[in-house]
Amino acid sequence: MKRKLLLACAGFVLLAGPALADEPIVGSWKRPNGTIIQYSSCGSDMYCGTVLTGEYKGKSIGSMSGKDGTYKGKVNKLDEGKTYNGKASVSGSTLSLSGCVMGGLICKSESLTRQ
């Protein structure tokens, strides 16, 4: 009886594993300028970015919400001291991040590589 219960519990954990996995945005990413940033969960369906290296080490680069590799939120442009509406998408080991102003008329984007 104990063996059946143990096998049933193990099966449940294996099936639940993918549902418990982190979103693709979670992890460390390298910007084209060499700066490393990290996105981590900071609430239900919310992911916060923090600079890990360079001049702005420890600063927030904004937060995103979403799932399945597609996210929207705010992006902080630290060298300008401004916050933009942003979006991000993850495909393989690439994070495409962009920020826009004026209803999306002016946008800047960059591709980051998973570390």
Automatic annotation (TrEMBL):
Cited Pfam families: DUF2147
Superkingdom field: Bacteria
Residues annotated as signal peptide: 1-21
The keyword Nucleotidyltransferase is annotated on this UniProt entry: no
Keyword NADP carried by entry: no
Domain DUF2147: residue ranges: 67-114
Family annotation (InterPro entries): DUF2147
Keywords: Signal
Protein name: DUF2147 domain-containing protein
Species name: Phyllobacterium sophorae
